[in-house]
Specification:
single chain; alpha+beta; 2,3-Dihydroxybiphenyl 1,2-Dioxygenase, domain 1; 2 domains; five-stranded mixed beta sheet; four-stranded mixed beta sheet; 18% helix
Length: 163
């Protein structure tokens, strides 16, 4: 069903809501490691977290998944959740935090339009932490579409932004 409708400019992803198997373990990742703040709890079954005081960017719950198994990597479902950091220095700070806490990073890519770090949360959900390059730095193909690549990201160069 193709139509002429397009989502209005300014539409964005408001939040993610994840089923987790262990709420406290998920909070240790999203709150304690990544630094999102808890805005509200629903007993010991759900938590809502945000950056900067928004009502929530992340919902976590165990309503149907407590003590369950992680979703199969080979099944349809969420590939990853992506968190956009405002500056390259902010991205470098979270990367340093991951390294200092010996949290496994599964990938680091330069996509031309962005720089991204990949990891998995404790339930195996993919997580991307990234920053966009300014639009003026993006490359375009002859047909006008955006030229995106997947090249290795130089983490040492990224971490130099902390100096």
């Amino acid at each position: 069903m193709k139509s002429n409708y397009t989502a209005p400019t300014g539409t964005s992803v408001g939040h993610i809501h994840l089923k987790v198997t262990d709420l406290e373990r998920a909070l240790k990742f999203y709150r304690d490691l990544l630094g999102f703040e808890v805005t509200t709890m629903y007993g010991d079954q759900a938590a809502f977290l945000s950056a900067g005081g928004y009502h929530h960017h992340i919902g976590l719950n165990t309503w149907h998944s407590k003590n369950g198994s992680p979703a199969s990597q080979r099944a349809a479902g969420l590939y990853h959740t992506a968190f956009l950091y405002p500056t390259r220095k902010d991205l470098a700070q979270i990367v340093k935090r991951l390294i200092d806490n010996e949290y496994p990073i599964t990938g680091a890519s330069d996509h031309g339009v962005s720089e991204a770090i990949y990891l998995n949360d404790p339930d195996g959900n993919g997580v991307e932490l990234y920053r966009d390059r300014p639009k003026e730095e993006w490359s375009y193909k002859e047909d006008g579409s955006i030229e995106m690549v997947t090249d290795p990201l130089d983490l040492s160069d990224l971490l130099n932004d902390l100096k």
